[in-house]
Write a structure and sequence with these properties.
Blueprint lengths: L4 H21 L6 H6 L39 E5 L5 E3 L1 H6 L3 E8 L5 E11 H8 L7 E6 L5 E5 H4 L4 E7 L2 E2 L9 E4 L11 E7 L31
Parallel strand pairs: 1-10
Antiparallel strand pairs: 1-2, 3-4, 4-7, 5-6, 5-10, 7-8, 7-9
The structure holds ligand MTE and molybdenum atom.
Amino acid sequence: MSDGAPVGRRVLLGMVGLGALGVVFGPSLQDAEQRLLAPVQNHDPTGLSGLVPDGGGFRFYSVTASVPNRTVEDYRLTIGGLVDHPATLRIADLAAMRQTTLVRDFQCVTGWRVPKVHWSGVALADLLDAVGVKPSAKAVQFSSFDGAYTESLSLAQARRRDILVATGMLGQPVTHDHGGPVRLYVAPMYGYKSCKWLGGITLAGQVTPGFWEDQGYDVDAWVGRSNGRDDATTS
Ligand SMILES: Nc1nc2c(c(=O)[nH]1)N[C@H]1C(S)=C(S)[C@@H](COP(=O)(O)O)O[C@H]1N2
Ligand SMILES: [Mo]
């Protein structure tokens, strides 16, 4: 009688095959579905994305293979360009300013969403008021200390109260994986506007397309109304 060995071997070979694929492609396999949903390919060019441990459903994204660690002590946020008072701020400076909290969903354009996330920090609008925006400024540019990622908003967008220079997220200081110690959180727009590892804010005369926008994403990234997601209720 058959001892089932052929079946067993097939199963075993199947597992070996999957294991080998896993070594080659790593987290890419887990992300296959979201890659299909992505309006452009390579939303995660490093292939490093995966679920953030205890991240409440967040995926870890970085366009660079590694990002320097910045502690609360050595972190600096530089604000310059078309402002009256260029500034270099520490975490303590941000903590001394009026704090704003938001409870809002986080929505990645590839399809995943984390509902009702607690965010805290300084409203970007308050920060702009503190440094004084020159009349010639029309846009706000953001750079990441990962050395690669950039984003921007029009000045009108940046003055909304639901955009934070966030130091808190998910009820704790923003972790390194989530872009800490300071990240941007743009509540009304898709996740790619929320620049992680925020290092610089520059007031400028015009909007400059950011990292993903150079690859085809909409600069105005309103959730539900951009990147081909327009529906009958908004048209
Ligand atoms: N510096 C930097 N910021 C970034 C990204 C990135 O790759 N690098 N990815 C963006 C995208 S597409 C999303 S959906 C969110 C993901 O945030 P998370 O890694 O905390 O889940 O960060 C955004 N900000
Ligand atoms: Mo995203």
